[in-house]
Design goal:
24% helix; elongated; OB fold (Dihydrolipoamide Acetyltransferase, E2P); alpha+beta; 4-stranded antiparallel β-sheet
Length: 163
Amino acid sequence: MATTSKKTAVSKTSSSSETKFIKELANILSDANLAELEYETDTVAIRLSRVSSASPVVTAQPPTTSAVVPSAIETVSEVEINPADNPGAVTSPMVGTVYTSPEPDAPAFIVEGDSVNAGQTLLIVEAMKVMNPITAPKAGKVVKVFVRNAQPIEFGEVLVIVE
């Protein structure tokens, strides 16, 4: 019976230290203003990426070996939803600066709740002094806009969700 309680105590301590470690990684991601951070050992692989400027996403993946992923990490990854997995996600095709309107004083191309047509300009991405329109892939409603005007963006970053 004493062995069982020791295992439980070790499990709780291990889970608590793993949770603290994940929080430390999230703080590094935030403090260094990184878009993504990966940590991998023989027993665990952790990938944190920033969905928006407000909150990091924690994703845990078991390595290809038969190691057991701690339940604390699994709980965190199940709670967070990656917007890139949304079928209506419009991602950036390049690294650059996103602009929400055609001119500095002009109204934005879109706002959340707008209805858009396929091919309609949603945003402009400036890359290497060239303005590249980002168009709606399908007709629908703008559910979420993840970027603000003049924000630097990365390749593959989710800009807008159109459903």
